[in-house]
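Appendix B. Chain record.
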Amino acid sequence: MSTPPAGRAPEAAAPPTAGPTFHRRWAAPVAVAVTVLAWASAFVGIRAVGESYDPGPLALGRLLVGALALGVGVAVGHRWVRPTRREWALLLLCGIAWFAVYNVALNAAEQLVDAGTTAMLVNVGPILIALFAGLLLREGFPRWLMIGALVAFGGAVLVGAATAETAGSDLLGVLLCLVAALTYAIGVLAQKPVLRRLPALQVTFLACAIGTVACLPFTPALLADLADAPAGATAGLVYLGLVPTALAFSTWAYALARMDAGRLGVTTYLVPPLTIGMSAVFLGELPPILALLGGAICLVGVGLSRRR
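Structure tokens predicted for this chain:
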């Protein structure tokens, strides 16, 4: 080992830069926050746009806008990784289940069930994700994850109960919410293995494009709705395609590639209380005290699920 010349102090090592560490630590949480906020706004947007667009055409229009935006993102500077046959099969499952069936079912449900109940019922999905991820993806069943999931689910139930219509929810609407929750869980579980090798943006684009193709039979109805819908409703459809679809599904895939599926899924329990707040601002739906209490319990559950 060489020594410094006499009379000259050894050079101090340069301190490590905080940039990469900061990026690694906060990139995934920021992506989760963007996803949760965008998906909460989607419940409000669907409820408003649904007055002018039927469920199928709304799903197709939203996916068309999302696929175009994602396609531009993939074409600009992102490397393309050729999927294997197994990855194509998983992408088909994700695209058909989560992007096509989920969107049609959710749109139809929001025409029959109020926004709070819809958000609560769809958020049965993270419970399914956590359970199936433990079984199929071998993520296990961490104690705090299960405790947090149960606590957050209890808060979501309070939110839904507090905002349910006094006349009761339509049974078909409730069933459609559960279909959306199931296809949401299936989509996440199919997406997770693909993200181990393929870029998140590419995975989101391919799944969205597959969902768009699956919804093409709604094209005549979409053209008819476009001709009759007011400009505000069409602008809302474009928003649903750009933000809750193209942006939020991309940030979700980015986070899912870096976090356990079960633990990430539980964070979406923040969606129901956020939906209630947005509904109060944009739709004039004021949440009762019980809904606020349920939202606070959701936050506690998410915090518990993050413990190690």
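Further analysis of this model is presented in Appendix C.
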